[in-house]
Amino acid sequence: MKFRKVVILLTLLSLWGGSLLFADSATQKVRVIINGIEQDDGGLIADSRTYLPLREIASTLQAIVEWDNQSKRATVYKPNVHMFLFQNNTVFGNVDKGYQGSFKVFAQIDNLKTDIAAVRVSIFDPGGKEKVIQTENVSPKSDNFWYATDHIDYKFESSGKYPIRFSIKPRGSDEWTVVSEKLISSR
């Protein structure tokens, strides 16, 4: 009786192990690298097709993903957003550590293929702490428009990169999507 249990156990373990090996060979992991940065969630190859994590890819490419659960359809939109930073009438960019002053963010948005409800402009210090420069509800009447923030006073307390991020909230969504980024270097 004991011998029979051992044989059954060994048979089950062999089948289970073989199934895992087959499953591993049927799907292979794929490393996904965008602009030189490896993504946390890679892709999979199964049945000669490559599957990639859409939200992570879209986020890295600064695109908007809309999911329609009823039709099981994902749509990706990538608006063109160009940001310009100005201090008075002068282009604003790199600063010295400890610099304190005001600047304004202008954004040109075109190729907007989805309805949006709001825009947000934020600055992040080198440690990742966010300061919202301005948030505003918008209703653009066409696929292109300009947006300008009020002047913001800001102190660049440490050396490093200070990303300015332009985010869009699609109509009917609670999620913000970063669609453009500009860097200010403080040295």
Distance N to C terminus: 77 Å
Compressed to H and E, one letter per element, the order equals HEEEEEHEEEEEEEEEEE
Shape category = extended
| Low-pLDDT stretches | 19-23
CATH class of the largest domain: Mainly Beta
**Please, how many helices?**
2
What portion of the residues fall into strands of 2 or more residues?
over 45%
Instruction: Please summarize the sheet with the most strands.
Output: 5 strands, antiparallel
| Averaged pLDDT | 85
Q: From the alpha-carbon coordinates, what is the Rg to the nearest angstrom?
A: 25 Å
- Helical content stands at 10-25%
List keywords for this structure.
single chain, 187 residues, alpha+beta, Immunoglobulin-like, 5-stranded antiparallel sheet, 4-stranded antiparallel sheet, 16 strands, extended
What is the strand and helix layout of this fold?
Elements: H1 2-26, E1 27-30, E2 33-34, E3 37-38, E4 43-46, E5 49-51, H2 54-60, E6 64-68, E7 73-77, E8 80-87, E9 90-91, E10 100-110, E11 116-124, E12 130-137, E13 145-148, E14 152-155, E15 160-170, E16 177-186
Antiparallel strand pairs: 1-4, 2-3, 4-5, 6-7, 8-9, 8-10, 10-13, 10-14, 11-12, 11-15, 15-16
Task: Tell me what the structure shows.
- This protein is α+β, with helices and mostly antiparallel strands and 187 residues long.
- Helix content is 17%, strand content 49%.
- It is built from 2 helices and 16 strands.
- Strands 8, 9, 10, 13 and 14 form a 5-stranded antiparallel sheet that branches. It has a 4-stranded antiparallel sheet with strand order 12-11-15-16, with no helix packed on it. Strands 1-4-5 form a 3-stranded antiparallel sheet.
- The radius of gyration is 25 Å and the shape is extended.
